[in-house]
């Protein structure tokens, strides 16, 4: 079983069943979801020690997701899923060392390779059916709130801007001078929250997802682990890969997935959306916002 198979079967199953597990089994499942590369090389006693649970907890957890026992479960992880363990400061220091040694050509290759891997690994986990289901939820909604803070604020703003060329119900949050919990205060089951955060997870984003579910909203989550605190409670879950040599998570796969999701929304939308987009751009031409071709 390769890394993609592990993600699509075992890890997704653990994520889906997470809330139904006992507290001790949740500790074991969380360790697997966040450290899948350790499973294939660890005995049941070793991984139980890492997760701070008893070995039998891992055996029971493995059986709950359809395996005969831990050894059968462990065999699926022989091909370790690539994860990054270096912290942000360590990566920043590494970048400085690369520059001092005149190895920027190597850094260039690493960055390009990481961007390509992130796209490939992300879309290997996602299928058209999942994207279509999320797109249908968006199109059928009254309002769509797109939440991203920090580096993901720009990703949320960009998605909302693109969507606004044909639709009016999109709002990027947090709004200036506000906070995301206030921004969704009057949202309900007719509304959708698209949310994104990667490790280290932002507290206000996790809290807003909790509030959104309490209010009956549909949550579409993008994050870097099946154990992410925004992935587990979401109805539509997209696990992305955000690894890169730099000291902050890469946004390449998030942007690509959001653009693909928006293309699905347009594809399943009513025909009038085409007229809306045409009207939007015609007005821009009329206002002289574009340089016109004079040839």
Question: How would you explain this protein's 3D organization?
Answer:
- With 295 residues, this protein is an alpha/beta fold.
- The protein folds into two domains: 3-75, Winged helix-like DNA-binding domain superfamily/Winged helix DNA-binding domain (Arc Repressor Mutant, subunit A, Orthogonal Bundle); 125-285, Glucose-6-phosphate isomerase like protein, domain 1 (Rossmann fold), CATH 3.40.50.
- The chain has 14 helices and five strands.
- It has helices spanning 3-17, 23-34, 36-39, 44-51, 55-64, 70-75, 88-100, 104-125, 128-139, 151-163, 180-183, 203-214, 252-268, 272-286; strands spanning 144-147, 170-173, 192-196, 218-223, 236-239.
- The chain has a five-stranded parallel beta sheet with strand order 2-1-3-4-5, sandwiched between helices.
- Helix 12 (203-214) links the parallel strand 3 and strand 4.
- Keywords: DNA-binding, Transcription, Transcription regulation.
- Residues 8-84 form the HTH rpiR-type domain.
- This is Putative HTH-type transcriptional regulator YbbH.
């Amino acid at each position: 079983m390769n890394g993609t198979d592990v993600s699509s079967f075992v890890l997704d199953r653990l994520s889906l069943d997470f809330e139904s597990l006992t507290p001790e089994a949740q500790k074991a499942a969380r360790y697997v979801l966040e450290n899948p590369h350790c499973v294939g090389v660890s005995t049941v006693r070793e991984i139980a020690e890492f997760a701070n649970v008893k070995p039998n907890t891992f055996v029971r957890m493995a059986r709950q997701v359809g395996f005969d026992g831990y050894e059968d479960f462990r065999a699926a992880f022989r091909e370790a899923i690539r994860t990054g363990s270096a912290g942000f400061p360590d990566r920043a220091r590494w970048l400085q060392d690369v520059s001092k040694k005149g190895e920027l050509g190597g850094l260039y290759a690493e960055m390009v390779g990481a961007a390509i891997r992130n796209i490939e690994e992300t879309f290997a986990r996602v299928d058209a059916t999942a994207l279509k289901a999320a797109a249908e939820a968006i199109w059928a909604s009254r309002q769509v709130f797109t939440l991203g803070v920090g580096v993901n604020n720009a990703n949320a703003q960009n998605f909302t801007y693109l969507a606004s060329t044909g639709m009016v119900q999109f709002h990027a949050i947090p709004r200036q001078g506000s906070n995301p919990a206030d921004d969704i205060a009057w949202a309900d089951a007719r509304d959708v929250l698209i949310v994104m955060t990667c490790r280290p997870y932002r507290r206000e984003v996790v809290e807003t997802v909790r509030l959104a579910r309490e209010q009956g909203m549909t949550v579409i989550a993008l994050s870097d682990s099946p154990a992410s605190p925004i992935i587990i409670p979401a109805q539509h879950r997209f696990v992305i890969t955000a690894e890169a040599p730099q000291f902050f998570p890469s946004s390449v796969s998030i942007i690509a997935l959001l653009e693909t999701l928006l293309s699905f929304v347009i594809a399943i939308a009513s025909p009038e959306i085409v007229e809306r987009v045409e009207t939007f751009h015609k007005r821009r031409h009329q206002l002289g916002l574009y340089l016109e071709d004079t040839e």
